């Protein structure tokens, strides 16, 4: 039976996508979450910290005729890196509002202004001798990434047919990992990894922005946004015909009309209104916990330890950048695999399975790091654990989290939900970047026991609370969540009624 369902799901997936839909996904992602992954990996290229710190020192010398202190140099470098996180938080906090006012596609197009300005500032920083332009450029790059992470999954989830929503939503994860891999490759010394090229490397973020500006205007706004938010029925029908094809647009229109009828009289919610809405309590708690776990599950620690493990395994220092590219390729391949499996296995199985495998990897990685010096075999086992952990993360948590944020909310609450999810994700990113060095210093290899606890707790929560959303409309998912909430509340209500009844009988 399970095999039949998987076959039917795969058969639907092969029939439904057309070129227009796939090109729309590419256009949205190449200037969206691709930029996020690219900007993370480019600044962390093996030689980039050294080149930029040399530039800061030279600029300081020209201005003040003295070398900058080591503490000041470290502070400026940390500021340049962390500005991306601050910008991401700002972008996430305004992305949902912009998506309501400008539309999903309109926001993605306008968002390129931040990317192009950032590329210009960072590219000119060396020429004009101003490291302040790097700070501003990284802030603007972060704002671009924050808005993209908020709005792009929204757009993908709303243009995709129900049977393909998971696969199309995986575009977010695929292009993040593709951006990371591209940044790692571009940072190699054979391409733009030489010292004289670092301003050009940082300014290459303009290329995906130009691609999106050239391609995305040829594709329509989200059909759901057109009909539900703007009341443009003709525009919605035209968009559906272009994205889904004439034969399949009727069912999609009927689904959107049902959701619109359920939301008659409701306005787009503000983020703070979600916290006071009892019917959205479990959905909101779910996306908050999953977005926190996405940053605190140990993936950052794995990348931190990768360089050490590669060195312990005997890989020459000049070859380690190529091994690092291998980790990026590993995560990218896993994201693609997840995209092919998600409509067959479902969201719940993939995200739970990913966290279970990550928990197992935490145990083995702790053991291999502990006994690293006992045998030459253990460094290689540690390498296996690194790649297995990255594969596990890409298999579920890396891609499914954003899809669930799309699917657990209806049209009037979805932009606000993405604002909350994005803000939580960026705050967690900032927190782990600040606290992680202290965790590693204090616990060393045993820090993975902390991440083991995080992964195990998330698995437990998903098993008991998160529903399977595969092949369900947004209205059906909302109804299921309300029924589950009612089932959780009902026993407590019955207990209270029985208690009051006993007290009344006793009193009378």
Automatic annotation (TrEMBL):
<dbReference type="InterPro" id="IPR005828">
    <property type="entry name" value="MFS_sugar_transport-like"/>
</dbReference>
<dbReference type="InterPro" id="IPR045263">
    <property type="entry name" value="GLUT"/>
</dbReference>
<keyword id="KW-0813">Transport</keyword>
<feature type="transmembrane region" description="Helical">
    <location>
        <begin position="377"/>
        <end position="404"/>
    </location>
</feature>
<dbReference type="InterPro" id="IPR005829">
    <property type="entry name" value="Sugar_transporter_CS"/>
</dbReference>
<dbReference type="InterPro" id="IPR020846">
    <property type="entry name" value="MFS_dom"/>
</dbReference>
<feature type="transmembrane region" description="Helical">
    <location>
        <begin position="349"/>
        <end position="371"/>
    </location>
</feature>
<keyword id="KW-0812">Transmembrane</keyword>
<feature type="transmembrane region" description="Helical">
    <location>
        <begin position="21"/>
        <end position="38"/>
    </location>
</feature>
<feature type="transmembrane region" description="Helical">
    <location>
        <begin position="167"/>
        <end position="185"/>
    </location>
</feature>
<keyword id="KW-0472">Membrane</keyword>
<feature type="transmembrane region" description="Helical">
    <location>
        <begin position="135"/>
        <end position="155"/>
    </location>
</feature>
<feature type="transmembrane region" description="Helical">
    <location>
        <begin position="197"/>
        <end position="219"/>
    </location>
</feature>
<dbReference type="InterPro" id="IPR003663">
    <property type="entry name" value="Sugar/inositol_transpt"/>
</dbReference>
<dbReference type="GO" id="GO:0046323">
    <property type="term" value="P:D-glucose import"/>
</dbReference>
<dbReference type="GO" id="GO:0005886">
    <property type="term" value="C:plasma membrane"/>
</dbReference>
<dbReference type="GO" id="GO:0055056">
    <property type="term" value="F:D-glucose transmembrane transporter activity"/>
</dbReference>
<feature type="transmembrane region" description="Helical">
    <location>
        <begin position="446"/>
        <end position="466"/>
    </location>
</feature>
<feature type="transmembrane region" description="Helical">
    <location>
        <begin position="75"/>
        <end position="96"/>
    </location>
</feature>
<feature type="transmembrane region" description="Helical">
    <location>
        <begin position="416"/>
        <end position="440"/>
    </location>
</feature>
<feature type="transmembrane region" description="Helical">
    <location>
        <begin position="108"/>
        <end position="129"/>
    </location>
</feature>
<dbReference type="InterPro" id="IPR036259">
    <property type="entry name" value="MFS_trans_sf"/>
</dbReference>
<dbReference type="GO" id="GO:0070837">
    <property type="term" value="P:dehydroascorbic acid transport"/>
</dbReference>
<keyword id="KW-1133">Transmembrane helix</keyword>
<feature type="transmembrane region" description="Helical">
    <location>
        <begin position="320"/>
        <end position="342"/>
    </location>
</feature>
<protein>
    <submittedName>
        <fullName>Solute carrier family 2 member 11b</fullName>
    </submittedName>
</protein>
<comment type="similarity">
    <text>Belongs to the major facilitator superfamily. Sugar transporter (TC 2.A.1.1) family.</text>
</comment>
<feature type="domain" description="Major facilitator superfamily (MFS) profile">
    <location>
        <begin position="25"/>
        <end position="470"/>
    </location>
</feature>
<feature type="transmembrane region" description="Helical">
    <location>
        <begin position="284"/>
        <end position="305"/>
    </location>
</feature>
<dbReference type="Pfam" id="PF00083">
    <property type="entry name" value="Sugar_tr"/>
</dbReference>
């Amino acid at each position: 039976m399970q095999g039949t369902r998987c076959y039917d799901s795969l058969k639907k997936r092969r029939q439904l996508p057309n070129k227009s839909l796939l090109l729309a996904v590419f256009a949205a992602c190449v200037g969206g979450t691709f930029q996020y992954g690219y900007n993370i990996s480019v600044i962390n290229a093996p030689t980039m910290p050294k080149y930029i710190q040399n530039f800061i020192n030279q600029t300081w010398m020209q201005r003040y005729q003295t070398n900058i202190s080591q503490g000041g140099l470290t502070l400026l470098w940390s500021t340049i890196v962390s500005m991306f996180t601050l910008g991401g938080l700002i972008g996430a906090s305004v992305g949902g509002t912009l998506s309501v006012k400008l539309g999903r596609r309109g926001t993605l197009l306008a968002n390129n202004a931040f990317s192009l300005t950032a590329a210009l500032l960072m590219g000119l920083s060396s020429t004009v001798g101003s490291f302040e332009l790097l700070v501003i450029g990284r802030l603007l790059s972060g704002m671009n990434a924050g808005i993209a992470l908020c709005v792009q999954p929204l757009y993908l989830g709303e243009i995709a047919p129900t049977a393909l929503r998971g696969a199309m939503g995986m575009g977010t994860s695929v292009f993040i990992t593709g951006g990371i891999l591209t940044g790692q490759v571009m940072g190699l010394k054979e391409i733009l990894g030489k010292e004289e090229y670092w301003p050009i490397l940082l300014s290459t973020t303009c290329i995906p922005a130009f691609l999106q500006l050239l391609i995305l205007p040829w594709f329509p706004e989200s059909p759901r946004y057109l009909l539900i938010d703007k009341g443009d029925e003709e525009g919605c029908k035209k968009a559906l015909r272009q994205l889904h094809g004439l034969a399949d647009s009727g069912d999609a229109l009927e689904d959107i009309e049902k959701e619109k009828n359920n939301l008659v009289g409701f306005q787009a919610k503000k983020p703070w209104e979600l916290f006071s809405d009892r019917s959205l309590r479990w959905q909101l708690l779910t996306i908050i916990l999953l977005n926190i776990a996405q940053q605190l599950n140990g993936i950052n620690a794995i990348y931190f330890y990768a360089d050490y493990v590669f060195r312990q395994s005997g890989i020459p220092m000049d070859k380690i950048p190529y091994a690092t590219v291998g980790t990026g390729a590993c995560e990218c391949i896993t994201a693609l695999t997840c995209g092919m499996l998600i409509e067959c296995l479902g969201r719940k199985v993939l995200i739970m399975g990913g966290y279970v495998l990550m928990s197992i990897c935490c145990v083995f990685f702790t053991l291999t790091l502990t006994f690293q010096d006992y045998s030459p075999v253990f460094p290689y086992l540690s390498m296996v654990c690194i790649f297995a952990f990255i594969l596990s993360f890409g298999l579920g948590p890396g891609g499914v989290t954003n899809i669930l944020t799309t699917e657990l909310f209806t049209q009037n609450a979805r932009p606000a939900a993405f604002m909350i999810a994005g803000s939580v994700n960026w705050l967690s990113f900032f927190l782990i970047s600040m606290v992680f060095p202290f965790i590693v210093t204090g616990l060393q290899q045993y820090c993975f026991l902390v991440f083991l606890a995080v992964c195990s707790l998330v698995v437990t929560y998903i098993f008991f609370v998160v529903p399977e959303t595969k092949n369900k409309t947004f209205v059906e998912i909302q109804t299921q969540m309300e029924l589950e909430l009612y089932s959780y509340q009902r026993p407590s209500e019955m207990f209270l009624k029985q208690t009051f009844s006993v007290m009344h009988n006793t009193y009378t």
